[in-house]
From TrEMBL:
The keyword Oxidoreductase applies. This is Enoyl reductase (ER) domain-containing protein. GO terms for molecular function: oxidoreductase activity, acting on the CH-CH group of donors, NAD or NADP as acceptor. The lineage of its organism: Bacteria, Pseudomonadati, Pseudomonadota, Alphaproteobacteria, Hyphomicrobiales. It comes from Tepidamorphus gemmatus. Residues 14-328 form the Enoyl reductase (ER) domain. The keyword Oxidoreductase applies. Coiled coil: none annotated. Keywords: Oxidoreductase. It comes from the Bacteria.
Length: 330
């Protein structure tokens, strides 16, 4: 079994030296457990937070422990009543070739309905994040303007499409012309703004002539500040992520437009997809249905290179090297 273990807590961007990657014996499932051979590992921006010290929404990965990750594969041996050899499964299995599971945070998936990587992407945790964050916290109404950052990514790409399905105007913020074209031409967003072009505020104003009712926040920093300045009265901001700050070694800059929260009576609310654990079936039903109807396009950016490529591929998320849900094939 090839396993990525955390060796030390990184400062700034994680590097290969922060992990120990080694061959170990394949674990054997005990009573009530099953063995999964993992084919795809999900790369998630949150991974940088999971290996940081300090208080968060989950305990950090311990030094010496396998790196936490969502992954998908097939059951190879089972002593568990609900999982059978040959079942396709996805869930929290770690960055490793084989994992033993008791079935906690692991579910059976249907490879006939969608390829395996999609079950750790749009039909998995990132899809559920878009669904609950937008609908429960963003509360979009038909005709609203919904802006989402990291718009071409795993979560953002779905947020804009779900907003469109709800009768909203969807505007994406993404880095570079290729991603902006993808968001409009392939995903059907109404407009996209390239924050790297250097005039985000003016471009946002042009793309949102009626202001912004919902801002689905994925990145934080300067983009958050600029969008704040264009929010409408009683606007909602689901705070899903702040990727621009995950590798920061300096304190963040002050937010110039913070007063917009008061003046416009904004609702700014953070959330974690796990908050909605008891309603996962509802999200899965809606995501599966829209996907089958062609109203939710999903794209996986699958990288080769196996377990050893993990640290380098992970960093693509923080430099914008991915287009769509970033997945490592083992
Ligand atoms: P993506 O597929 O969107 O990949 C990350 C993207 O973020 C990059 O492609 C890049 O796009 C953008 N990005 C990276 N650095 C910066 C930066 N400094 N400034 C602006 N944009 C940047 O990842 P996910 O869809 O998996 O995650 C998106 C967000 O959702 C993250 O913040 C993540 O932490 C959060 N999240 C939160 C969850 C929750 O439960 N609250 C669950 C899952 C995800 P570009 O090239 O356009 O800059």
């Amino acid at each position: 079994n090839r396993v990525v273990r955390l060796k030390r807590r990184p400062v700034g961007m994680a590097s290969r030296d922060d992990f120990e990657i080694a061959d170990e014996p394949v674990p054997q499932p005990g009573e009530g457990e099953f063995l999964v051979r993992i084919d795809y590992v999900s790369l998630d921006p949150a991974m940088r937070g999971w290996i940081s010290p300090g208080r968060s929404y989950v305990p950090p990965v311990e030094i010496g422990a396998p790196m936490r990750a969502f992954a998908a594969g097939y059951v190879e041996a089972s002593n568990h009543p609900d999982f059978t050899v040959g079942d396709a499964v996805a869930g929290l299995l770690g960055v490793q070739r084989y994992a033993v599971s008791k079935g906690t945070r692991v579910a059976k998936v249907d490879p006939a309905q969608a390829p395996l990587p999609r079950w750790i992407g749009g039909l998995g945790m990132p899809g559920q994040t878009a669904y609950f964050g937008l609908l429960e916290i963003g509360r979009p109404k038909p005709g609203d303007t919904v802006v989402v950052s990291a718009a071409s990514g795993a979560v953002g790409s779905l947020v804009g499409q779900i907003a469109r399905n709800m009768g909203c105007r969807a505007v994406g913020i993404a880095g570079g012309p290729q991603k902006c074209r993808y968001v409009v031409e392939e995903l059907g967003f109404d407009a996209a703004v390239d924050y790297k072009a250097g005039h985000l505020d003016a471009d946002l104003a042009a793309a949102c002539p009626d202001g912004i009712d919902v801002y689905f926040e994925n990145v934080g920093g300067e983009i958050f500040d600029t969008v704040l300045g264009r929010m409408n009265l009683f606007g909602r901001i689901p705070v899903c992520g702040m990727i621009s700050m995950y590798n920061a070694t300096e304190p963040p800059a002050p937010i110039r437009n913070i007063r917009s929260i008061l003046v416009n009576r904004l609702t700014v609310r953070g959330f974690i997809v796990f908050d909605f654990q008891d309603r996962i079936a509802e999200a899965n039903e809606a995501l599966g249905r829209w996907h089958a109807e062609g109203r939710l396009k999903m794209r996986e950016d699958v990288r080769q290179g196996g377990i050893d490529a993990f640290p380098d591929v992970l960093n693509e998320l923080y430099t914008g090297g991915n287009l769509g849900k970033l997945v490592l094939a083992l």
